[in-house]
Amino acid sequence: MNTRYSKLLPGIVFLSDLVLLNVALYNSHFLKFNTFLTSDQSTVFMLLVNLAWVIVSAVSKSFNIVRPLMLRDNINRFLLTLIYHLLIVFSCIYFLKIENISRTEVMLSYTLFFFLVVLHRSLLFFFLDFIRKKGFNHRQIIVIGDRSIAQRLVQSFAQHPEYGYDFNDFISDEDIANMTADELIASLLEKKPNEVFLCYKQIDNELLARLVSFGNASMIKIKVVSDLVIDKDVNSVNLVNYHNVPVLHVNAQPEISLKIRVLKRSFDILFSSVVMFLGSPVFVLLFLITKFSSKGPVFFRQERIGKEGKPFYIYKFRSMRVDAEKAGPQLSKDNDPRITKWGMIMRKTRLDELPQFFNVLKGDMSVVGPRPERQYFIEQILEKTPSYRKLLQVKPGLTSIGQVHYGYAENVDQMRDRSRYDLLYLQNISFNSDINIILKTVKVMVQGKGK
């Protein structure tokens, strides 16, 4: 694959998204009505969805695939586009008074479309990553400026062949000092790079302006590399432009962007609504079995600590005897005599936690996030692991990477060990990682590996 074929990629992705959208629409219609033939209302709805997607996608450019390949960023951008699309479609349905549209069909359409696009993007990124490692679809780059910064950049590219960069030439700042700006530009034109990386601790503004103008005129990307080395303990780095002064905001504390917060909350509402709607027969069945299998209330309510240390009540199907904590706060353990026989089955499959989707809809929790704990145990954890306080900066989750890879804890030391997984999640929080955790949670439920 030659470099020029990359220019076709955005168009291919755009058309692929449109095809997947219609696959989702027609299959959802079939699942609901057992036919691919659409009524007048369904046809109007599908045309509206297609038109709105073409407009919103073209504006957001969610079909663009940029280097380096970052699947989670691309999925996040797509999901944000999908949310805008939903708002436009629902607004049109309301103002145009389009009636008799099945809510089930709409929900199925968007859910299926989302998962189809995630699968498509994953396969596409895997393919691009593979061929770039094989030496195809590469871009030629020239690095100019400070030698030490340039060496660090080239070394990074060498360690990551999936970036798809070939080092063409290096022009040191000593060489540049002995040539005019016109000579430098002529040299760059002769080598025909796709991108030019400027590695300077301090660059002449006039030279920078000339290079930027040259890049725009020649369709060559000009990129500036900072001499700043970010420490591994820094969790977030954001570039903010104060008029003409670019400033990096670095933070060791987790800092989740507004876009990610909006995406997570939108997904929480959508996913919880789908689970509670489609899973309502399961909820009723669990309610009845819990009611008649042991004495006591069906639901268990307990105070937990949420985001920013605010307490809230968590809901579960009761899996223990009513007097389980008459001796004070206790953690469950293997062969715990306080757990009922039916409760043991629910805990193995984690079905006892399904009512927490109500907590998610209320906004107390997220589908994925650190496990919510009681103040009694949090105080003990903080004495030995002060970094645990970072986990209180985000909403707790119905499931977490700690729950998947570690499981339930039987004492405070195990709770501290499990929190390390959640701290790692906090450093790499993204929509893609949330989906992976949800899929792994489903696997744990099917295999009955909870306790």
From TrEMBL:
Keyword Hydrolase: no
Superkingdom of the source species: Bacteria
Keywords, alphabetical: Membrane, Transferase, Transmembrane, Transmembrane helix
GO molecular function terms attached to this record: phosphotransferase activity, for other substituted phosphate groups
Cellular component GO terms held in the UniProt record: membrane
Membrane topology term: Multi-pass membrane protein
Segments passing through the bilayer: 12-31, 43-66, 78-96, 108-131, 269-289
All residue ranges annotated as the Bacterial sugar transferase domain in the record: 264-446
Pfam families in the record: Bac_transf
Location of this chain's protein in the cell: Membrane
Entry similarity comment: Belongs to the bacterial sugar transferase family.
UniProt cross-references to NCBIfam families, sorted A to Z: EPS_sugtrans
Full protein name: Sugar transferase
Organism (species): Mucilaginibacter pallidiroseus
Taxonomic lineage from the root: Bacteria, Pseudomonadati, Bacteroidota, Sphingobacteriia, Sphingobacteriales
